Amino acid sequence: MPSFVKQSLAGLRVLLVLTVITGVLYPAGIWAVSRLPGLHGNAEAVDTTLVAVAREGGGYFVPRPSAATLPASGGSNKSEVNADYDQVVAQRKAEVAQREGVAESAVPQDAVTASASGLDPDISPAYAQLQVPRVARERGLPEQRVRELVAAATSGRALGFVGEETVNVTELNRALDAGA
Questions:
Q1: Which DSSP string corresponds to 14-78?
Q2: What are the tens digits of pLDDT across the range 153-172?
Q3: DSSP H helical segments within 101-168, as ranges?
Q4: Distances, alpha carbon 179 to alpha carbons 70, 129, 168, in Å
Q5: E strand or H helix at 170, and its extent?
Q6: DSSP 8-class letter at 98
C-alpha cells in the first residue's frame, strides 16, 4: 500500500475514535454525572457559590440584575448611549430605591447594571449594606447580626490590590437560610 493511503487510513481511524470519544462518550458521561442524586437541590447547584441564585422574598439579599433569562447566560449589547438601556437602568433604580426605602441617588451602580454573564454572585459592599435593614426587618434579626454575615461573605481584593471588595450573595443567603 502506498504511504499516502496508509496515512489517510490512520487519520480516518483517529478521526473516528476522537469523534466517538468527544461526540458520544464524553457528553453521555457528563449527562450521567448530572443525574446523580445529591448534586442538585431545588434546581440549584449545591456546594458552589460561583453562580448567583436569586431568591424570592424580602428576607434575602438580591443579586445583580441579569440581561438573560436564567438559567440561560448572556449579556446585553446595549451601551450607555442606548435609550432603551437608559430606560431599563432608570426603571431598575426606581425599583431598588422603592424596595430599600432610599432615594434613587443612594442606589449603587451594580444594583442596576447587569453582569456580563448574568450569573455573577458578587455585589458591592455598598449594595449589600443598602439591603441590610430590609433583610434584618424581614427576618426579625438585629441589623448588627446581618452586618456580621455580610462581613463574613465579603472578599477583599485579590493579592491585596487587584479588583474591588465583593460580597457573595449566594453564600450570604445560604448563611441566612442556615439560621445564622
A1: HHHHHHHIIIIIHHHHHHHHHTSTTSEETTEESS--SS----SSTTS------SS-TTS------
A2: 998 887 778 888 999 998 99
A3: 125-139, 143-152
A4: 27, 20, 17
A5: helix 169-177
A6: H
